[in-house]
Specification:
Layout: E1 4-10, E2 25-30, E3 36-38, E4 49-69, E5 75-81, E6 88-98, E7 104-114, E8 119-129
Parallel strand pairs: 3-8
Antiparallel strand pairs: 1-6, 2-4, 4-5, 4-6, 4-7, 7-8
Length: 139
């Protein structure tokens, strides 16, 4: 099961005539690059990745997403937040958890866009290792 939320601070001072060209600034809280986690349901922990980032911008952040790709660059998880960001300059938290039954390397992409179309992307790579189920043997 994956869970998500994005929360922000309200800003009502947006001036649409004052266009800015700088992309939002993303600060990834977790995961750290190279984090190792284990398959869901196994004996080892952690069995999930916590994806947590904050973002700030000179104008209003209108959209944020977290996308997770497998080794084959296929999207295995996607979360997008729109409504709560529409009046936010500073998003306090983009939060999601991801767990899987498939071991391998995963790329986590945090992407935020402001009202002027400026986009920022930050990425982290993590590795999922197979974890035997309780009582499972090699036979």
């Amino acid at each position: 099961m994956n869970s998500c939320s994005l929360t922000g601070t309200e800003d009502n001072s947006e001036n649409p005539e004052n266009l800015e060209e700088e992309a939002p600034v993303i600060s990834i809280v977790s995961p750290n690059e190279g984090l190792v986690f284990y398959t869901e349901g196994g004996a080892d922990t952690p069995d999930r990745v916590v994806c947590n980032a904050s973002v700030s911008d000179a104008s209003t952040v209108k959209k944020g997403s977290i996308t997770i790709y497998n080794t084959g660059k296929e999207v295995v998880y996607y979360y997008e937040e729109l409504a709560s960001l529409l009046t936010s300059k500073n998003v306090d938290g983009a939060y999601s958890t991801f767990k899987t039954l498939q071991d391998g390397t995963y790329e986590i992409e945090f992407r935020f866009e402001d009202v002027h179309g400026n986009v920022a992307i930050e990425k982290r790579n993590v590795t999922c290792v197979y974890s035997k189920l309780e009582g499972e043997t090699d036979n």
